[in-house]
Amino acid sequence: xxxxxxxxxxxxxxxxxxxxxxxxxxxxxxxxxxxxxxxxxxxxxxxxxxxxxxxxxxxxxxxxxxxxxxxxxxxxxxxxxxxxxxxxxxxxxxxxxxxxxxxxxxxxxxxxxxxxx
Length: 117
Fold this sequence. Notes:
Layout: H1 3-15, H2 20-33, H3 36-45, E1 50-51, H4 52-59, H5 63-75, E2 79-84, E3 87-92, H6 95-108
Antiparallel strand pairs: 1-3, 2-3
């Protein structure tokens, strides 16, 4: 995003603080995302819908642990579940969150953004 566009968006946000309901919902979402295990699970989803067993294999976590954290993420609208036969597949609920996490990883220095200027 160009700096002048980002600055304009920040000015707009600063001039109009969020109401208590929105702040409470956002705080709940950030609590759900503030757990390292949940961030690992989200990163394991990437852009594909995958069964729980694949998330277990990718993260090295136990299945009950993954299921517990997926429930929390599902309750917050971060992931969605799709039943396919006898398996439940989990997908990122939308691309915006995945992109936001990528931006945070870039800011944190854990990812290199080839498009940065």
